[in-house]
Amino acid sequence: xxxxxxxxxxxxxxxxxxxxxxxxxxxxxxxxxxxxxxxxxxxxxxxxxxxxxxxxxxxxxxxxxxxxxxxxxxxxxxxxxxxxxxxxxxxxxxxxxxxxxxxxxxxxxxxxxxxxxxxxxxxxxxxxxxxxxxxxxxxxxxx
Length: 143
Prior knowledge:
alpha+beta
């Protein structure tokens, strides 16, 4: 592994029922199909996990850029809405993921906030991964 490349391995094992156990670096995650698709009740599904991962990536990117820009934030929360649809090639696909971020600041002017939020989306690796495949709408409001 070079200095500019990182590899992460994740294992998935069927639980013998309706779910797969994902073995992560630290801990496990159980995933199933969403409600209405013969799922395991109370178990997460990929259709909610992808937006959650996007929110997490947006926050981690935001936090790093805010620190570099010396912008102090006092609040950060996000809500995602995902729309799925039929894929013409077969099966289903993510049509869109909309994320609305509410963020509070201590010491930032409007230009700095706008730049910070633009760079957050630009450098989020999950945003890059879904670009040109899923409509991604990121909005924010200062609270």
